[in-house]
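Q: Give me the 3D complex with pyridoxal-5'-phosphate.
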Amino acid sequence: MSIKENLHQVLSTIPQEVNLVAVSKTKPEEDLQAAYNAGQRIFGENKIQEMTHKFEALPKDIEWHMIGHVQSNKVKYMAPYVSLIHGVDREKLLKEINKQAAKNERVIDCLLQMHIAQEETKFGLDASELAQIIDNTLAEAYPNVRLVGLMGMATFTSDQDQIRAEFASLKQHFDQTANQLQDFSILSMGMSGDYPIAIEEGSTMIRVGSKIFGERNY
Ligand SMILES: *Cc1c(COP(=O)(O)O)cnc(C)c1O
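A: Here is the predicted complex, encoded as structure tokens.
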């Protein structure tokens, strides 16, 4: 199947109000252009340098989402153009995003990444770190950042019940936080292998790579 067919296949199985981020990391610009020509406008990358090259080469109405782990010293390279940063997993990073956004006279939309998986290897905040960041945000510590939601990754397992429980816990954190922050509206959860479960558990934004572009060769 072509990229266009894969894309339409995914879109045909998700509710209209769920946003699709096409995860194009490691893929060549031609593949992104093919998805763009089929109507896709939101792309997700996990390396700032690669995303910046693609931003420069591809049409300017693309929304670029940073979905990977972000090093603070690289925020400056994407601050002029990034649409949404999904992986804010520490307050130090939020501070740096706020600083670089101010330099660019922008307000940058961010998601806080929560640690919901059992795997130690995955990044993310715990409940108390989340509460601390929300308190400081309410105290207007980060005027050039708009916190718009949460992101999380489930454990890589075939146990569907476990995946479902992890997404449900993220949804609970989301609902609690949405009571405190008026801009909170995005719950980014679900990838190629688990997005149907994520949508059942309340996802509003899925990040799908291999199902659209094929397997990645690193
Ligand atoms: C790579 C990646 C995805 C997409 O993974 P697929 O299994 O190819 O759909 C989604 N989210 C994050 C954070 C990723 O790094």
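A quick observation: Residues 3-213 form a domain with the TIM Barrel fold (CATH 3.20.20.10).
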